[in-house]
Amino acid sequence: MTDARYLKRTIVKDVISSRNLPEGERNLRIYLPPGYNELLSYPVVYCQDGEQFFNFGRIATTANQLILDEGIEPFIIVGVEVDIANRTAEYAPNGNRHNGYVTFFGDELIPYIESKYPARRERSARILAGDSLGGTVSLHIALAYPDLFDQVISLSGAFYPASRAIVELAPDLSRLSLFMIVGLQETAFKSDSGAIYDFVAINREMKAILEHKGAHIKYSEHNGDHVWGFWQQHIPDALRTFLHAEA
């Protein structure tokens, strides 16, 4: 049974204007931690598939549990919503909306959040998180904005050939730290293009490429399929990797 304290969550719906997105705006969901105080400052977790992270990943409930019971330093969560019809175009590096989305994230979203909310502005206080192609675009945002990001949570990242080719061309990546998981049953996933991918194989390959470039990886494989029921189980450990207990 879930502790009632975990369900007392403050989630604000927000809308950001954008010059880089065709719609001109994007919906956000902002989780504010227990005891939120604008005089303080907080790390921020930026989630792709924002609505799903809240509804299916239960990330706000998990955050309350970590903060209230484990003494994890309070943090803000920014869920960036996505129109499923445009998801691959925005998240895949060869998608026709990808560059605009990445630019929106680095040039517009970060300044907006850090001007409106008491978010810390050092790189170590920003964490990117995503599932499947959301993990992919999180990595590409970190590559595009090295001064802003060096921490990525990838839940069954969809590291298709276009992504691997980009990372293989990247210079030293020793600044990067990634939390990566994949499910052992994800061996025949059908992508939006109709191609079948072995996610265990492609995650192992990306791990090897990243480590060769000097990145620091916390990698694990578990029984699980390409579904939120699997990813949800590992969100607490992912957050603990980059957010620490208060002294």
Task: Explain what you see.
- The chain is an alpha/beta fold and 247 residues long.
- The protein has a single domain (4-241), classed as Alpha/Beta hydrolase fold, catalytic domain (Rossmann fold, 3-Layer(aba) Sandwich).
- The protein is 37% helix and 22% strand.
- The strands form 2 sheets. An 8-stranded mixed β-sheet has the order 1-2-4-3-5-6-7-10, with helices on both faces.
- Helix 2 (59-70) packs parallel to helix 8 and helix 4 (98-116) packs across helix 5.
- The protein is globular and about 45 Å long.
- The mean pLDDT is 95.
Strand order of the largest sheet: 1-2-4-3-5-6-7-10
CATH topology: Rossmann fold
Fourth CATH level, the homologous superfamily: Alpha/Beta hydrolase fold, catalytic domain
The end-to-end distance, rounded to whole angstroms, is 30 Å
CATH first level: Alpha Beta
Major sheet size, sense and barrel closure: 8 strands, mixed
Shape: globular
Would you report the number of β strands? 10
Radius of gyration: 17 Å
* Count of separate structural domains: 1
Give the H and E element order.
EEEHHEHHEHEHEEEHEH
| Poorly predicted sequence stretches spanning 5 or more consecutive residues | none
Compose a concise summary of this entry.
With 247 residues, the chain is α/β, with parallel strands linked by helices. The chain has helices spanning 50-55, 59-70, 87-91, 98-116, 133-144, 161-169, 199-212, 228-242; strands at 10-17, 25-32, 44-47, 76-80, 126-131, 151-155, 177-183, 189-190, 196-197, 216-222. The longest helix is centred in the middle third of the chain and has 19 residues, at 98-116.
